């Protein structure tokens, strides 16, 4: 199960509810200092803290400017703080369908809202019809009883009807089972209650990690033991630094009481060093900046130190640099390494505390400014570690560093701003965002632009390399035939998908660059492109889609549909001739407006596998086309591309 959407607010600096979609793997919150990035993470954390500690508190969390007014209504009408939307995976849905005879489809979502009294409201709707059918068919009812039950719309209604009937022994048994079933809940829809009860145990809990949770360089053992005892009645006795050392000891299987035995220091030290070495090895899979450092542990007394370190033994953590043969206090050097090491200790400790017996159970990791102290290139390395975490858990992290953003995954980025008289806002719409906020994204794109995009004054943005191949070669063919081609001063820029197209327009459109766009058409308008038009980032006439240049003007299409079906099938057969049992003919294909979709359906229907994930690699067909362009082309294909080039030339030369 994954978190798919968050609606948070009012909460602290968020004055009105903000809706934010959550990526299945990684979501990046980008914004300036004090914009509200941390507020967003903490708002999510309080709704489903894995440790069960964090809760919503009116005084601490409700926006201060409205707190006096709200306090008057809070006792009787607590306001909603957050709504979280979850999506079970296919395996979870199939299991529930088997248990309860439901017919839930993959893609099903449900909501959980939490108010400022920490009460939950569940929004889930399950169709009881298939369950009712099974009850009627397997309940050993007589035909007369079935006749009375067949129009029932709910399980509760079935029980109400059975309450008024004279039932035989087998019917009474079914009746009793249903009565027991509905008594478990006061929900009107029993199926919704039963399904939610199953899903509730699968909800991914949140873990929040910030700069405050890093390990200290030293800690007094006697003081730590005293604080542990006091924390039973006063949890505030254990600060993050105490908890982090306790986590390290727990990983080493060392009890705090063992540390009072001075004679046992050497074996205890060996245990802790063993864990430290193991953690260092884990870090070195991703830490490439300095591979000559390691963590060393020592336990000793120092009566000359200040209190409380002068009372009994202290535990010391130091970083050893084998190249320079020196050690430094853990909290004095290499802040990036310290953060990394501390995070691993914390993460392992929390998993121990919540007793994750099921290793496959997902968590939601909330990382506040991770790797802030790292060198720019080290931050890029750290992204690999975040990718590693996202293999098993969703990750949501905050940053304002361009090196903590994957330039090829800008669809994962959400912009956070603190607007005057509005408060914190969260959006994935770059076109309406303050230039200072999107600066990290512009910087992140800089390297890609410099290396891959030869931006000129006249840019024709397309989705990918396949478009580049077809457009380049068709332009050359039309030029040879002395027909309208693409002007030489226009640069075709493949962006890597429609999401990247909208991002490039938003980030580059303000730089006085002349831009035209061609994108594949799925039958409906694209919200992000519409937003760019509404915000006057780009003129609507500058955006073209492929169906404008095919016979099916309003039906879905791709760049491949500008070619005649026969031409594309010929190149498809050439590309995959060694993998196909026989050549595919146009007449073999099912109907439809998109040649790629028709081919995919044909391959699936015939059980033909051209790649493990199904379908086929479109770029391979384009490559075959580019390597050996057709010598004879039908008039319809020539006209389609000529009309496209005519429009693009007018747009970019005007």
Characterize the structure shown:
By secondary structure, this protein is of the alpha/beta class. The chain folds into four domains: 1-126 and 189-204 and 361-448, Rossmann fold (3-Layer(aba) Sandwich), CATH 3.40.50; 129-187; 213-353, no CATH class; 453-654, no CATH class. Helix content is 41%, strand content 16%. A six-stranded mixed β-sheet has the order 7-12-13-3-14-15, with helices on both faces. Strands 2-1-4-5-6 form a five-stranded antiparallel β-sheet, covered by helices on one side. Helix 11 (240-251) crosses helix 13 (335-353), helix 16 (465-480) packs parallel to helix 21 and helix 19 packs across helix 21. The two termini are 51 Å apart. Residues 450-454 have low confidence and may be disordered.
